[in-house]
Design brief:
This protein is α/β, with parallel strands linked by helices. It has 2 domains: 42-233, 3-Layer(aba) Sandwich (Rossmann fold); 247-462, Urocanase superfamily (Urocanase fold, 3-Layer(aba) Sandwich), CATH 3.40.1770.10. It contains 17 helices and 12 strands. The chain has helices at residues 21-37, 59-67, 78-86, 97-108, 125-133, 152-156, 164-173, 175-200, 211-217, 235-245, 260-284, 289-307, 326-341, 380-391, 423-446, 450-462, 476-484; strands spanning 47-51, 70-75, 92-94, 117-122, 142-143, 203-204, 249-255, 319-324, 349-353, 361-362, 396-401, 411-419. It has a 6-stranded parallel β-sheet with strand order 3-4-2-1-5-6, sandwiched between helices. Strands 7, 8, 9, 10, 11 and 12 form a 6-stranded antiparallel β-sheet that branches. α2 (59-67) links the parallel β1 (47-51) and β2. The longest helix has 26 residues, at 175-200. The radius of gyration is 23 Å and the shape is globular. 50% of the residues are buried. The structure holds nicotinamide-adenine-dinucleotide (NAD).
Length: 485
C-alpha cells in the first residue's frame, strides 16, 4: 500500500492505455456506423465535416483516411494542425476556404485516389460550416464536432472572428467579453449546422464533447420541438450504444515480449477468428435477427484488423485494439493462449479492454446515456463488473473514477488478465470475458434495448444453463384498468 492516489481516468486508471490507436479505432467504428445510418454499405467518398485536430480529436483525420471518406476538419491552432500533418494523419491543409471547397470537389470524383483523405482547414469551424451552407454542389453526408466544449469558456472552444492568439489574449484579459463571444459563436455555429442539415440531409451527431449541452446553455437553436431534448443524437445514443448492446467493444491485447513479429501473428489470429464468426453470421442471417445485426460489426472490424499493421498506430507497447463481441473475445484469447503455449508467440500476452465498452463504465452523459429506464445514474454496473472479473480470475482489477466526461461524472471497472499459455489461463479467460461482456448486455436488455435482448436470447439458446431474468412489458390495457380503478 503506497498511500497515494492518481488521476487515472479511463484506461490509464487500470494501466491499460495503449496510445492513440484506441481513439482512432473508436472513431473509425463511429464513422462507419454513421454511414450505415444513412443506408450506405461503406463510407467511401462521403464528406465528413468536423472540427479539432488536438489530442483525441486528431483521430478524426486518421479515421477518415482509414474508412475511405473525405474528412474536412477545421482547426484554429496552427501548431496542432501541423503536428497532425507532419505525423501523416492529415493528408493536406490550407487556410483558404476556396481551396478547401475545390479539394472536396476533386476527391469526390471516382477517378481520384486515394478515396480516403483528410483536408485540414486552418481557421474557425464556424466559417467552414457557413461556407458549406452556401455551396450548393458540395454534399455534406456526415457532420460532428470535437472541439473541447467540455471546457467551453476555459479555452476549449475558440470564438469565430478572432485568431488563436487574439482569443487567448481576450480570455486572459477580459474573460466576460470572451465568454460572450464564445456564446455568440456557438449560436452561429449551430445556425450554420442547422442550415447545412436542412439543405443537404447531413447526419450530424454530438461526439461526447458536450457541444450540444453548451450550445444549448448559450441560447443556440439546438433543441428539438419539445424544447428539452436536443435536435441531434449523441454518438452513443444513435451509433455506439447499439454496438455495445450486441456485446461488441474495445477488446485489446499487449504482447509482453515487445516484439513486432508477435503482434503481427496476434493480428492474423484475431482476423481468422473474426472471419470465422462473420461466416457463421452470414450462414444463419436469414432466420437469425441477432446475426443480421452483428454482421456489420464483424465487417467493420475485419477491415480494421486486416489493415491495422499498415496503419502504423503502435506507440510503445506492441498492442492492438479490436472491437469484438463476447464469443470473439474469448476465442481470440484462447488462440493467443495456445500460441503462447506452443511457442509461436515468444512471450505471454496481456488482455484487457477500454472502459468505453458495454459494461466497463457507468457514465450517464456518455457510455450509459442510451440506458433510458432511469438507471443510467446508478454506479452499480462498473462495480459488479470489477468484482465479477476479480472472482473469475483477472490478474489485475481496478475501480476508478473520472474519464472523458470528467472526475465525479463516471465510474470505471477495468481489468488485465495475463495469458501465459496454461490451461488455467484459458479457463479464467473464458469465464471472465463472458461475464465482462454479458454483465453489460443484460443491463441493456433490462432497459429494453432490442439488440441487447436479441443477444441475450441468442446466448441463452447456445448455453442451456444460462438463465437471464428478462423484463416483461406491462399490458397497457390492464395497466389503465388498474389505474382507472
Ligand atoms: N467521443 C469520444 O470518444 C471522445 C473521446 C475523446 C475526447 N472526446 C471529447 O472531444 C473533445 C476534444 O478532445 P481533444 O483531446 O482532442 O481536445 P484538444 O483540446 O486537444 O483538441 C480540441 C481542438 O479543437 C480546436 N478548436 C477549438 N475551438 C475551435 C474552433 N471554434 N474552430 C476550430 N478549431 C477549434 C482546438 O484548437 C484544439 O486543438 C473533448 O471535449 C473530449 O472530452 C470525445
Amino acid at each position: 500500500m503506497l498511500g497515494v492516489s492518481q488521476y487515472g481516468q479511463m484506461t490509464a486508471g487500470s494501466y491499460c492505455y495503449v496510445g492513440p490507436q484506441g481513439i482512432v479505432h473508436g472513431t473509425t467504428i463511429t464513422v462507419m456506423g454513421a454511414a450505415r445510418l444513412l443506408g450506405k454499405e461503406n463510407a467511401d467518398r462521403l464528406v465528413f465535416v468536423t472540427a479539432g485536430l488536438g489530442g483525441m480529436s486528431g483521430a478524426q483525420a486518421k479515421a477518415s483516411n482509414i474508412v475511405g471518406c473525405i474528412g474536412v476538419v477545421a482547426e484554429i491552432c496552427e501548431s496542432a494542425l501541423k503536428k497532425r500533418h507532419e505525423q501523416g494523419w492529415l493528408t493536406e491543409w490550407t487556410d483558404d476556404l476556396d481551396e478547401v471547397m475545390n479539394s472536396i470537389r476533386k476527391y469526390r470524383s471516382e477517378e481520384v485516389e486515394p478515396k480516403g483523405v483528410s483536408i485540414g482547414y486552418l481557421g474557425n469551424v464556424v466559417d467552414l460550416w457557413e461556407r458549406l451552407a452556401v455551396e450548393d454542389d458540395i454534399p455534406v453526408h456526415l457532420g460532428s464536432d470535437q472541439t473541447s466544449c467540455h471546457l467551453v469558456h476555459g479555452g476549449g472552444y475558440y470564438p469565430v472572428g478572432l485568431s488563436y492568439d487574439e482569443a487567448n489574449e481576450l480570455m486572459a484579459n477580459d474573460n466576460d467579453e470572451f465568454k460572450e463571444q464564445v456564446d455568440a459563436s456557438l449560436k452561429r455555429h449551430v445556425d450554420a449546422v442547422n442550415e447545412v442539415v436542412k439543405r443537404k440531409g447531413t447526419y450530424f451527431w454530438d461526439y461526447g464533447n458536450s457541444f450540444m449541452l453548451n450550445a444549448g446553455r448559450a441560447g443556440a437553436d439546438i433543441f428539438a420541438e419539445d424544447g428539452v431534448s436536443f435536435r441531434y443524437p449523441s454518438y452513443v445514443e444513435d451509433i455506439m450504444g447499439d454496438v455495445f448492446s450486441l456485446g461488441f467493444g474495445p477488446f485489446r491485447w499487449i504482447c509482453t515480449s515487445g516484439k513486432e513479429e508477435d503482434l503481427r501473428l496476434t493480428d492474423s489470429l484475431a482476423e481468422m477468428v473474426m472471419n470465422r464468426h462473420l461466416e457463421e453470421c452470414e450462414s444463419i442471417e436469414d432466420h437469425d435477427e441477432q446475426a443480421r445485426a452483428a454482421k456489420g460489426c464483424f465487417r467493420d472490424n475485419l477491415k480494421w484488423i486486416r489493415e491495422a499493421g499498415s496503419n502504423q498506430l503502435v506507440v510503445g507497447s506492441q498492442a492492438r485494439i479490436l472491437y469484438a463481441d463476447a464469443k470473439s473475445r474469448i476465442d481470440i484469447a484462447l488462440e493467443l493462449n495456445q500460441a503462447v503455449r506452443d511457442g509461436r508467440l515468444s512471450g505471454p500476452v496481456a488482455i484487457s479492454r477500454d472502459h468505453h465498452d458495454v459494461s466497463g463504465v457507468d457514465s450517464p452523459w456518455r457510455e450509459t446515456s442510451n440506458i433510458t429506464d432511469g438507471s443510467r445514474f446508478c454506479a452499480d454496473m462498473a462495480v459488479q463488473n470489477f468484482v465479477g472479473d476479480a472472482f473469475r480470475g483477472a490478474t489485475v482489477v481496478a475501480l476508478h473514477n473520472g474519464g472523458g466526461t470528467g472526475f465525479g461524472e463516471a465510474i470505471n471497472g477495468g481489468f488485465v488478465l495475463v495469458l501465459d499459455g496454461t490451461d488455467d489461463a484459458a479457463r479464467r479467460a473464458s469465464m471472465m470475458l463472458h461475464w465482462d461482456v454479458f454483465n453489460g448486455v443484460c443491463r441493456r436488455a433490462w432497459d429494453g434495448n432490442e439488440n441487447a435482448n436479441l443477444t441475450v436470447t441468442s446466448e441463452e439458446n447456445k448455453i442451456p444453463d444460462l438463465a437471464v431474468t428478462r423484463i416483461h412489458d406491462a399490458d397497457p390495457d390492464l395497466l389503465s384498468k388498474i389505474v382507472g380503478e
